[in-house]
Amino acid sequence: MLKIYYNPLLLCFLLFCISWNASWAQNGLHFDDVNDYVQTTYPGVLGTANRTFEAWINPDTTSTGSNAILDYGANQVGSRNTFLYEAASSRVGFISGGTNANMFSTNNVITAGQWNHVAFVLNNGTGYFYVNGTAAGTGNLSTVNTPTGNATLTIGQRVSGGSIPFGGIIDEVRIWNVARTQADIQRDMNKELCSATGLMAYYRFNQGNAGGTNTGQTTLIDQSASSNNGTLLNFALSGISSNWVTGVNLTPGIGGMGSVSPAVCGSYTSPSGKYVWTTSNTYQDTITNAAGCDSLITVNLTILQPSTFTFKDTTCGNYLSPSGKYTWMASGTYSDTLPNAAGCDSLISVELTVNTATSATIAPVVCESYLSPSGATYTSSGVYQDIITNQAGCDSIILINLTVLGSNTNTIIETVCDSFISPSGKYIWRTNGTYTDTIPNSLGCDSVLIVSLTVYSSTADVRNEMTCDSYTSPSGKYTWNATGTYLDTLTNSNGCLNHITINLTVVEVDTGVTRVGFDLIANIPGLTYQWLDCNAGYAPINGAFMQQFSPAISGSYAVQITQNGCKDTSACFDVMGVGIAQNTFETPIRLFPNPNSGTFYLEMGRSYASVSVQLFDLTGREVFSKNTVNGTRIELQTQNLPQGSYAVRLSAEGKRAVFLVEIR
Which one of 168, 331, 397, 446 has the minimum C-beta count within 10 Å? Predict the structure, then answer.
């Protein structure tokens, strides 16, 4: 087990001051000579105070005109601090505006397309230029006086009032509030700084992925204590132009020193991960902190040693090792590891004797409760573990798979019609309510049922119905043809039976007709009548709608009777001898004598091949008939007929005539 002891005073140094970084990218920022620039929040060194500006620049070979490296202040005489590169003369310059406020280096000191270190120093009103650590010019700048409250530091562009964008790569911009000497500049120009007196703004540009997609890397970090970060404006942040690119190659700086005093068991890996030490001693290691500088760590290492221990133990069944990592189930000698007082592993040897434990499983089924072998009482179904001591003095574990089938309670909801027989069959309930019933379960235990009962009632209905021929019941199940009382059932709105009593009247229209003389009289008065001409296809007779009908001429007649909305038609009745019957013979026919005593003659006027004579009484019944041939006079003997009026119908060769004769 690893145990490390740290110096508390070093904890801040380890947690907050040092960062282990696998690599530290030395990048720069390419400006497109059009509109790229970085706007910081640093106000600059103000008034007439001494100051130093430093930067590494790699101008594009295509760049022309003036290229602003940095600037801040106001666009007025003596108030701005424009540090620039002039491509045409390959020189650097400082412009503040006005007399004794501007100066340039000697020509041809800058080489485009490669890295150049440039520095400007203002020392008590005199300006100095250094290029790659070599003096490159001096001049009078006695009127430089930067006011407060104006434009903050801009990299790659001048303050407002003109536009001289930089074209190329800028790296390692440093702003000092002291006038640095040439020796100072030469000493530090080729290395990154971790801290320095008078360093007010420090931009390493070590950000982004060189030449990659850096759309999220829009902040330029100020590594000084002021933290006046800058914001990238108008950069494409993709590709080899207008993006983070490879910067100047500098030596990383030294970031501090510290020590740790770990006490560990066995071996120790150094903070950098480069070394593994296994003996106590004092070692040194180097790591890179958050600022990208090397930090030297002294490691005062103590390596602690493990220990050993042996003991005996006896158990029943399983045995849990001292560390809790292992479970041993048989007698034997086992090894385990625990931390000792020093925090190192202690090797433990256990001489173990395991006595035999027993186990069994039972599955009792009871009604109310169960008393276990050890004396525990259980009242609900479940799986329980019970322990008793066996003959070897070890636990005998009994697994009880218990089923308790006691008086269980269930609720049922029932909706019925009229009445409900309880599940036990003991009760009949006829009203809404909550009832209790008990039935035995499969083992004879009580099962209590709570019945939530809703009782709906069946209904009854009486209907008086009348029909002409037949009647179909409301349910559609039956068809009745006779008057009577019948029963049918439907379902009411509650889903119960609706018992229907039907008092049915089947209307039977009385079509009886009585003949009185030549009149026809329907048997039942007070109904609706329509007399019909049977010989004309049962055509209605105009105006013949009374109970009694008196035909105007002989013919065959019937009556249509409407009774209680039902219609029926009587049989046809022949009425003979009324009015003047039509004579269809070509010659006049004479009947004589008339009246007579039963013998009379028909004078035909000419001879017919076949003649038929029929006599009808006033009821239309045929009472006499005779057929003759080739005669012009026909004698009729009817002495056996009762006295009265008779209709004589004469037919010959399709011709017809009807006469009324009186026999006395």
Answer: 331
Structure tokens at 361: 């499983």
3-state secondary structure of 186: helix
Global pTM value? 0.44
For position 11, what pLDDT does the model report? Answer: 31
For the record, the structure tokens of 270 come out as 């150094």
For residue 108 the two structure tokens come to 């041809």
Q: From CA 508, how far away is CA 485, in angstroms rounded?
A: 17
DSSP for 111-156, written as a single string: -TTS-EEEEEEEETTEEEEEETTEEEEEEE-TT--BPSSSEEEEES
Mean of pLDDT over the chain? 87
> What residues pair up with 471 in beta bridges, in sequence order?
480
Query: 159 and 93, same structural domain?
Result: yes
CA-to-CA distance for 218 and 29, rounded, in angstroms?
11
Could you give the number of structural domains in the chain? 8
Does the bond joining 271 to the residue before it have cis omega, within 30 degrees of 0?
no
Whole-number pLDDT of residue 386: 85
Q: Are strands 497-506 and 459-467 parallel, antiparallel or unpaired?
A: parallel
Burial 500-530 (b: 16+ CB within 10 A, else e): bebebebeebebebebeebebbbeeeeeebb
Residue 296 pLDDT class (50, 70, 90 cuts): low
Q: Which residue has the tokens 């009886």?
A: 512
Q: Which domain, by its residues, includes 442?
A: 408-454
Q: Assess whether 185 and 241 both reside in one domain.
A: yes
Residue predicted with more confidence, 25 or 491? 491
Dihedral angle of Cα 249, 121, 51, 116, to the nearest 10 degrees: -20
Kindly tell me if the per-residue pLDDT of 353 is higher than 70: yes
- Are 33 and 101 members of one domain? yes
